Amino acid sequence: MNQLWHDTHHLNHNGLPLEQMSWHMAHQKNCGCTPIPPHIQRIMPSGRSAS
Ligand SMILES: [Zn+2]
User: Fold this and answer.
1) How many Å apart are CA 1 and CA 45, to the nearest integer?
2) What mean pLDDT is predicted for residues 15-40?
């Protein structure tokens, strides 16, 4: 777990879905301690869960 990254990047659970999506995309690149939740994957343009 990249604690330094987490300390400087806080996920706003009450934020817009797009804000949460960009947080998770950055998180996957810099840490990835938790998977991207399905409701976020659904709105990602890469379409990870398209099928
Ligand atoms: Zn993490």
Assistant:
1) 26
2) 95
